[in-house]
From TrEMBL:
InterPro entries: MetalloPept_cat_dom_sf. Coiled coil: none annotated. It comes from the Bacteria. Residues 1-30 form the signal peptide. This is Reprolysin-like metallo-peptidase family M12B. It comes from Luteibacter rhizovicinus. Keywords: Signal. The keyword Glycosyltransferase does not apply. One of its GO terms (molecular function) is metallopeptidase activity. The lineage of its organism: Bacteria, Pseudomonadati, Pseudomonadota, Gammaproteobacteria, Lysobacterales. SUPFAM superfamilies: Metalloproteases ('zincins'), catalytic domain. The keyword Signal applies.
Amino acid sequence: MTMSIPRIRNKCIAAAFALCLGGFLNTAFAAEPEKEPPLTFHIFAHDDIPDSEAQRVHTRLLSWWLADMTDTVLRGWNIQARIHRHVPGVTDIRYGDDRAYDRWKGSATRFAEREKLRINGWNKFMLLTGASPYPGTSGIAQHEGDFALASVNANAAVVAHEFGHTLSAVHDDSKVRGSDAWWCETNMVPSASQIYRDCRAYSPENQERIRTYVTGLALPSP
């Protein structure tokens, strides 16, 4: 089962998010035409995550991040999110050992080939897991790679953090911010604190890194 969320206008975001994760229904919204292909985030929910968790997962991990990406980080770009459930050979793979990343990369690559999706930076693939996806960590991704894994039981920034790595964001440009409410950490801090809250945002430096990376994807090949 696949759910599609193309980039949507600001006034429609709340309604779209309310619909999209209600049991991972197939849902689509009209996107404005763009010259470049859409930057598409393919998010696969592992079979060990019950359907009853769908709304919680979306609210904690996805909705605010997608809104920030479309409204702030990559405003004006064509961004899509596709959530996949119950895909044999993909959402039922074994994870949690030191071969989990390579196993996921292989499964996602075969899915992409079957669906005729190019692995060229415009498609990013993440497996959400019910437990730690890789020994000693709640998420894993390669810098400017196309594949990532993240546990739904990690902190609220885990999806933003791991996808951030695939978009060229780095730990060194993360920030701890002060505010009237309390201090907060931006999405790319190396390890989430038990004291600070999540800013639910990338630092300005990492926002610029992401924009530069995506702009580079759009440049003609030499």
